[in-house]
């Protein structure tokens, strides 16, 4: 691998990460946060910028391959996990719990291992800001700034945006999307304010709703805030580029998108399944369904008290996840749609004349068999990681249903919990869940490719 080229791109990542820490630093000072906490953020910011400067000196501009772009992506999510953990450690949090929290923040998961008393306003903002940063996928954002259109690495970012093409992916496009992301966050904050939330709570919850992160200042959502969160969780689960289409007056085209239809159908089916399992329906149940499918992780009821059929239904919804190109996690609705469409196509092929050519189509475009196979491969890898993780967690005294629920929540970067994730959780299952969060956010394949490449080069 061309490490000098990788260093060149990581230089941008470290600079953005370093300077972005000025936001939680400013917040901690304004909120009168613990001195050690604020100093740790400042030192972490300076250290990150210094490493970025060093990488810039040794790095050399060159086109990079997909594997090299994967290295940039993986590093760009591991490093923020550490920089988020550092101020928590300075505040007296156990290093293992602090790192778990850092991973949960940047991956937009929302599972927590912090003691209740440690959730001060500064900590709330730190976690929320990292989730907001992770939601926009800083690694992919930076790669797209400096890679020319048409290259393999450029295609990596294009894929993250889904099928929507605003314009050729350039600096202008990324800035436009970032502007929309910031503006949407502001809209959510104002809406929360109007629902009766305080100013600080509105800001923190806007950051975690837009990023489908889930680290809320509210343990349980009730009243008018519940309905505001429900609407914006649904919207945040759609491709980021949809905001642009709405502004351009092309909102009608959204309804024709298979992901939007699939997600809406999943909400209705999930709500019906959970209502049947519990024996009644309510707005809180609908809220929890949208929270699971959007992988936001906000709660309106106690997940640990649910009957096992309901837990399994929520597990399935978290695995399906949000739409491709959104800030949400999971397998993504587009892949679920491709799997369903391929099964239907296979049935048609069995009853059609032998010479008939029946491709798998999405919005009129025929998919190549290799493209469908990639979806099945990732799906099988995803399920294998989920089952292995749930098995390990269950070895520490938790039921199969609870272990599957917690592992699915980590892998789908959701954040709903049945109580397994906690400060007292044994180090082994805690490490497994943290790895799941990273694998879920990076979608397994980049990590697998990087590890295989590093092992091969030894």
Q: Helix segment count?
A: 21
SSE pattern: HHHHHHHHHHHHHHHHHEEHHHH
Mean of all residue-level pLDDT scores: 87
Shape: globular
- Estimated helix fraction: 55-70%
User: Could you give the order of strands across the largest sheet?
Assistant: 1-2
User: Uncertain segments of ≥5 residues (pLDDT<50)?
Assistant: 150-169
Termini separation comes to: 12 Å
- Count of individual beta strands: 2
Largest sheet: 2 strands, antiparallel
Strand pairing plus helix content: what structural class? Answer: mainly alpha
Strand content: under 5%
Q: Using only CA atoms, what is the Rg?
A: 21 Å
Structure description:
With 458 residues, the chain is mostly helical. 68% of the residues lie in helices and 1% in strands. It is built from 21 helices and two strands. It has helices at residues 3-20, 22-30, 35-58, 66-90, 95-106, 121-135, 138-146, 152-160, 171-195, 199-210, 223-236, 242-247, 252-255, 258-278, 283-293, 308-320, 333-351, 369-394, 400-411, 427-442, 445-457; strands at 360-362, 365-367. It has a two-stranded antiparallel sheet with strand order 1-2. A hairpin with a 2-residue loop joins strand 1 (360-362) and strand 2 (365-367). Helix 4 packs across helix 7 (138-146). The longest helix is centred in the last third of the chain and has 26 residues, at 369-394. The radius of gyration is 21 Å and the shape is globular. Residues 150-169 have low confidence and may be disordered.
